[in-house]
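Intended use. Records such as the HTH domain-containing protein entry shown here are meant for training and evaluating sequence-to-structure methods. They are not intended to support clinical decisions.
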Amino acid sequence: MSPATARQDIQTNTLLDNITIKIVETLLENPTIPYTKTQLADAADISRDALYRRWNDLQAYDIIQRAEDETGGDYWTLNQEADAVKALATLIHRQ
């Protein structure tokens, strides 16, 4: 999917709600920091329930990726190469 196609798809998707924007902004500000789901919710100042409601979309659009971790924990980082991330970054920085 090209960035233009991703941008068009995202504009018509629920990925542009305030909660998802908070999640993506947090990840964009700290793209290499690995987060647990709880840590990401806290960093984005949203509830865990709100994060869980959007988790499938974040994965479906490859916005998040599993982080390498020696502890075997469940950590996630921003997928900086994903077209959806590039499109969201452009849209968020325009606001």
